[in-house]
Amino acid sequence: MSTSPGFAGKAFIVAAIGTLSTAWLMHEAPTQSADVSLHASDDIPAHATRDRASTPPAAQAAQAASAVPPAAPAYRVETAQVTHSFSEAASKLGIDAATAAQLARALAGRIDFRRDLHPGSEVRFVFRNDAQADANAQAGTQGNAQTNAQLNTQTGAATAASTTATADEDLPLAVRISTGKTSHDLFLYRNLDGKAFYYGADGQSNAPSFARYPLDYTRVSSSFSPHRLDPVTHRWAAHDGVDLAAPAGTPVHATARGTVTFAGWETGYGRVIKIKNSGDYSTTFAHLSRFAKSLRAGAQVREGQVIGYVGSTGWATGPHLHYEVHVDHVPKNPLTVALPKRSGMSAEEKEHFAEQVAQFEPLL
Ligand SMILES: [Zn+2]
């Protein structure tokens, strides 16, 4: 936070006054109008970092200082108390269910919406004011036309981006969830196609990646199925996972980061590890010959970490891993279930995004 240009900008206000006129001259026409502040145009998708990069730090501070507060604020901040759930609190502020789910996914792994949110928790959203958005859209069309044309090799791409942005311009620009003990922030970022993403202030997506397979297996020896004849008990029962055959001793890897909730012996499963992953996901690894050293309930694991080794403990006819993926406590087919994805930003996008954070974080 201490590296945020926004805060630095405040500190430089006095020093920057002398260079103010210089900073203005270094910029092009659209910033002349007092009611179209630099702030209001900063979240245009293809905003030029070129300007910032070629501008000395003191002049950057002058830009921040010279952003004359418009007659109508460009942004509004709204707060809602959490009484039942995050999505309910969000809906009070006009956030639709799909957006609430997107925000929840972006926070997966940092906050457990069932455990950490309770009455008294609070959500804050920064929205763009509509009137300002209209003015901003016009200014953006003029002011960023050149930049858009450069970043998108054809003007058609720039048009598509702004159309998409207009269609869902009510998306919150920044979000803070305060649980009383801690708070978590998310910031909207649009890629050049105008597609919306939410990231933490560090620009890292919180949604962890999730590997499809926990080991190098030779074949699927038994597939996921709601009904199958159990080869050991000879009774029809659901097979809640997939059996991946592999030689005894083959390392088994955690498929996503998480917390070990159980590592021990269970009837049928033999030596089994259960891991609570991010969001609603949990994973189970059964019939292991042994556990990795220091693996016990409560341990944190990374994606790819070796947690145990293939065996045939419990009800198993030969060495294989019985692997389960549960989503919201419902077993899903591990080979086909939709897994959380991480989408990274390029270095240039990260630079854009850092400007967004510097702008909106102080409003939260
Ligand atoms: Zn099995």
Describe this entry's structure for a reader:
The protein is an alpha+beta fold. The chain folds into three domains: 61 residues, no CATH class; 154 residues, Nuclear Transport Factor 2, Chain: A, CATH 3.10.450.350; 114 residues, Glucose Permease (Domain IIA) (Distorted Sandwich), CATH 2.70.70.10. It contains twelve helices and 17 strands. A hairpin with a 2-residue loop joins strand 16 and strand 17. The protein is elongated, with a radius of gyration of 26 Å. The N terminus is likely disordered. The site of zinc ion has 5 residues, from loops.
Secondary-structure element order, as H and E? HHHHHHEHHEHHHEEEEEEEEEEEEEEEH
Number-wise, the strands total 17
Average pLDDT reading: 73
Shape: elongated
The largest pleated sheet is described as: 10 strands, antiparallel
Secondary-structure arrangement, i.e. CATH architecture of the largest domain: Roll
Structure classification = alpha+beta
Alpha plus pi helix count: 12
Helix content: 25-40%
What's the level 1 CATH class of the largest domain? Alpha Beta
Distance between the termini: 13 Å
Number of domain modules: 3
* Ligands, ions, cofactors: zinc ion
Low-confidence stretches: 1-62, 135-167
Rg, Cα atoms, Å = 26 Å
Q: CATH topology of the largest domain, which one?
A: Nuclear Transport Factor 2, Chain: A
Multimeric status of the protein? single chain
